[in-house]
Structure formats: C-alpha cells, structure tokens
Specification:
CATH architecture: 3-Layer(aba) Sandwich
Number of domains: 1
CATH class: Alpha Beta
CATH topology: Rossmann fold
GO molecular function, one term: phosphoglycerate mutase activity
Order of helices and strands: EHHEHEHHHEHHEE
Helix content: 40-55%
Structural class: alpha/beta
CATH superfamily: Phosphoglycerate mutase-like
Protein name: 2,3-bisphosphoglycerate-dependent phosphoglycerate mutase
Largest sheet: 6 strands, mixed
Number of strands: 6
Distance between the termini: 27 Å
Catalytic activity: (2R)-2-phosphoglycerate = (2R)-3-phosphoglycerate
Keywords: Gluconeogenesis, Glycolysis, Isomerase
Radius of gyration: 16 Å
Family: Belongs to the phosphoglycerate mutase family. BPG-dependent PGAM subfamily.
Strand order of the largest sheet: 3-2-4-1-5-6
C-alpha cells in the first residue's frame, strides 16, 4: 500500500505581487497565481495522479489554488477539509505593510530577524516555531492518518505552514529550514514508507 502526500504552496496572490506581508490577511490569487495553480494541476495530471481527499487552510488564496488543482486533475468537488491550523504564519503588525516600508519603519536588520529567524516573532504575530506548533499536531492527527491508510492526499497551503511541515517530515534543522524556499504553485510529491519516513520525493517544477 503506497502512502502518497502532495504539498503545494498557493499560486501568487495579489499581495505577493505587491510585495506586502500577508499572513492571515485574505487576498485572492493574482492572474499569474491562477495560471500557476492550473499548471500545478496539469503537472499532477500528467503523472496520472488523482486524490482521495484534500486539505487546505481557512484563507482564500490556498482554497482557490486547491480548487483549481482539483479541476485540472478532473476531480472538482472532491472532499476538501479547510482548517486555520494550516494558515500562513501570522505576521502581526507587519501584515499589510510593503516589505520596503517595513524596513524603513523598523530597520532592515530587525525585519530580517523577524522574517528569517526560527523563534523570534514580529510584534503581535507568530514565529516559524509558533507556526509549527499548530501545523504539526494537525498533520499528525488529521492528515498523516489519511495517507498511511493508503489514500492519496493533497495539502494546498502556504509558504511557512508548509515549511514547518517539511522541517518535520524531512528532519531538517532550524538553520536548514530557514534557507528552504517554496515556489508558488509548485507541487511536491512524497511517497511515504510504512514508518512514515520519506521513500521518494519529487518536485514538479
């Protein structure tokens, strides 16, 4: 029995395009983001992949990406579970600010620390460590059991929620995960061993 899990960061959002800190704010996909999500679905369809269940966040850009992927693999209407446990990292007081504007206001070094440290949150927001604290229990209790039951699972979520998940799945250090960038709209296909370790990984660029 093959356990298969596909992770995909949402396509470019309107706020990605404008270089804004987004976090839990809820912009939709840009035109480019819609195209990226459709392309992700086409690449998965080209592998002959279909899904048994999908998970996504409570934010529209991830939900829209999930829906477009499922349309492209011929599964519109597939059971999709939405939960804020998979939401993007909350950027707190940075949310809605242009990244250049944030650097001017708080200083380049401070903004870099907030963006790239593992456990230092921005004011009113979450660190990557905080994000992992809500993502990983959800993965262990809700997502992973579906995959280990032999179902093919899609998770369409966000750069930081998926990085937190990948850190645990791939056994990465804090330093390694901070250097890992996830492209918008690029699926990562994992085949899992019976002990939940990774048997095979394929990034569909």
């Amino acid at each position: 029995m093959t356990a298969m899990l596909v992770l995909c960061r949402h396509g470019q959002s309107d706020w990605n395009l404008k270089n804004l800190f987004t976090g839990w704010r809820d912009p939709d996909l840009s035109e480019k983001g819609v195209a990226e999500a459709r392309e992700a679905g086409k690449r998965l369809a080209a592998l002959g992949l279909t899904f048994d269940i999908a998970f996504t966040s409570a934010l529209v850009r991830a939900q829209h990406t999930c829906r477009l992927i499922l349309e492209e693999v011929g599964q519109p209407g597939l059971e999709t579970i939405r939960d804020q446990a998979l939401n993007e990292r909350d950027y707190g007081d940075l949310s809605g600010l242009n990244k250049d504007e944030a650097r001017a206001r708080f200083g380049e070094e401070q903004v870099l620390i907030w963006r790239r440290s593992y456990d230092v949150p921005p004011p009113g927001g979450e660190s990557l460590k905080d994000t992992a604290a809500r993502v990983l229990p959800y993965y262990v209790h809700r997502v992973l059991p579906q995959a280990m039951a032999g179902r093919t699972v899609l998770v369409a979520a966000h750069g930081n929620s998926l990085r937190a998940l990948i850190m645990a799945m791939e056994g990465l250090t804090k330093e390694q995960i901070l250097k890992r960038e996830l492209d918008t709209g690029v699926p990562i296909v994992y085949r899992l061993n019976p002990d939940t370790t990774i048997a095979e990984k394929q990034e569909l660029k």
